Amino acid sequence: MASLKIRDLFDLVSSEVSNPDKHIEKVFDWVHGRRLELAKWLLAVSLAVSAPVLLAYFKGDLTGTISPWWVIVAVFLAVLLAVSGLVVLLRTGRLHRTYLVTQSLLGRIQQIAPFISRYREEGRE
Amino acid sequence: MSIDILTSTAIAGLLPLLVRFFDFLWGKLLTRKRLRQAEETLFIEALRSDSLKTLGDYLDSKVGQFELTEYAEKEEVRHRVDQFLLRIQEFVNPSETERVETIEEPGEVLVGVDTDDPDFQLVRHKLMTTSSWDALATLRRTVELRLVQLAVENRVEVSSKLGIARILNSLVREGVVSPTLADNLRFSVSITNRAIHGEDVSYDEALEAVSHAQHALAELRLLREAQETG
pLDDT for B136-154, tens place per residue? Predict the structure, then answer.
């Protein structure tokens, strides 16, 4: 999503594809799905990494059977993945607003579509 | 052990937040750089150039460089881009009263051509050397400026935002411009509007538009001079 620029909307409109709004919807759907998957994956791995440590902690043999370094590494990874997952999840939530704003921007760009097409045909070097 | 579980947890929790924070700062720096590049004065210069290439280049490279997330999340970017698009819209889309329409060539052709008019020399030069789009955009701006000037001189209340058609209607209503002159100007403006809106306009049509407008404006100038002397 970060790499999608307003220029891409100009290209979309000037290429005269039918229903450019549907194309935008598809892109956002794809980004939304991908981000959601990534967030789920990060949270699931975090849970998987932290589960043995939590299990050992509740059994009371955290320092007995597992090396303290492994505990530290496991907790570090689990928290890192969980916070990363939450950050991705929060950013996914903001995607709806970007989608709505993009659709309205597309509508405005469509109003100057003939100008953009002419520039693409004649003016561009 | 120098690092305990709590320290490790804190570092792990802070790392993604730090990455996000630096990403945010980097985004802010990029936005500032892009906003500087898309400076308002440059845009006004591009509009004044009446050049398809200059205006299109500006739109493509300066306005188009913003990312969609920047546009959605940063008020300043959204405001700037919207402003630019609105101006382009005003420039390329004729107002409601002068929608792209084909107007018949007026039967009565005017004769008093002012060949020394530097604005029309520029329009004809553009027509021969660049594209008809550039020439007709300059022609439309010339006609609009002259009509606004005429309205001001005759104390007719108009705004350039009204569009040429409405300004012309006001001037005809107040008796400043005759219906024949107005028809000639409307014909020229209809061709310029078609070109600016992106429709194909042939060289001959462009030449006709320039001729009619030049005749009409020269006639207006002669009438004004005659009124001033007599």
Answer: 888 888 888 888 888 888 8
| Nearest by Cα to A111 from A4, A2, A20, A1 | A20
**Helix B132-153 vs helix B118-129: crossing angle, to nearest 10:** 160
Q: Dihedral sign, CA of B113, B119, B122, B124?
A: negative
Reported ipTM: 0.79
Count of other CB atoms within 10 angstroms of residue B165: 21
Q: Is the pTM of this model over 0.95?
A: no
Q: Do A83 and B131 touch (CB under 8 A)?
A: no
The pair of structure tokens assigned to A39 is 């967030």
Instruction: Count residue pairs from A and B with Cβ separation < 8 A.
Output: 134
Q: Integer distance in angstroms from the first to the last C-alpha of chain B?
A: 105
Instruction: Kindly determine whether residue B71 and residue A101, on different chains, have CB atoms separated by under 8 Å.
Output: yes
